Amino acid sequence: MAPQRRAAARGPDCCGAAAGPGRGGRRCHGSAKRSQGQQESWWRWLRALFLLASAAIGALVSWRYLGAEDGVTEVLAQHQENLQDKFIEIPCSEDYDSQKRFEGCTPRKCGRGVTDAVVTREEAERIRRIAERGLSLGGSDGGASILDLHSGALSLGKHFVNLYRDVRQRIQQRIAQAFGINSSAMYLTKPTFFSRINNTEAKTTHDEYWHPHVDKVTYGSFDYTSLLYLSDYSEDFGGGRFVFMDAGSNKTIEPQAGRVSFFTSGSENLHRVEKVQWGTRYAITISFTCNPDHGIGDPVLT
Q1: Which of 230, 243, 205, 250 is nearest to 130 (CA)?
Q2: pLDDT per residue as tens digits for the range 204-225
Q3: Among the listed residues 252, 244, 135, the one whose alpha carbon sits nearest the alpha carbon of residue 198
Q4: What pTM was estimated for this model as a whole?
Q5: 87, 157, 221, 222: which has the highest count of C-beta atoms within 10 A?
Q6: Which of 174, 241, 272, 281 is catalytic?
Q7: What pLDDT, in 10s, does the model give residues 44-67?
Q8: Other beta carbons less than 10 A from residue 266's beta carbon
Q9: Residue 281 catalytic?
Q10: Beta bridge partners of 216
């Protein structure tokens, strides 16, 4: 019988201690390099996946909270939701300390609110038709037009005057309730006006409605400001949101017909309106003072 050849005993694998300096050792060294390269490639892929996921989450957060033009923005009232009442109390500024105080009216509690439960959409649409008719007779060529309800330039019918008075009283009572004051101590003040804003280029500084401002500085007599929106954000116009400019974060209200926003008029509520990008935005500003010397009556028939 021919002698059988026995297989040589295999030593430890490439990574074992028995690998010598010859060809086997070089093969082991190359295999280790390849294994290390595969691990590094794997970790690079994981890091890339992590960064991609982080970017996606960041983009989602940014889409929700970043404003159209500047700063981090939180939406207080979206145009498609129906808010019964939403109120946020904020510290009062020192603006009221330097003026005569009227008990039961001058703000001691400050803040801002929004409601869709005071004026109906149908009422807002009726008021808008009056605004459109009046503003069609004149207005600015620069994109922002206002029409003072007490100027006499607008012919007001009996039905509108009665509707306006009813709406004004409801808004006044809602403001009084939110701030814990006596509605009978509040007086309508001027200017009370329709506003129409579109994307026409500004012709004068008066057309530049988008600058931040404080109503008590701009108008003097205002203690409480309210806006009744007469058109819908994203349907009738784009841009044009109302923006409260708080430190570190803006708070916005997206208009919709019948929505009322209201706030104390001091510098605690610095605000602006975004530039309208398309369409036409209609609103009416109705504001109140605590000083009877600055009070005015409701519009009269002309």
Answers
A1: 230
A2: 888 899 999 999 999 989 999 9
A3: 135
A4: 0.75
A5: 222
A6: 281
A7: 666 666 556 544 434 433 333 344
A8: 22
A9: yes
A10: none
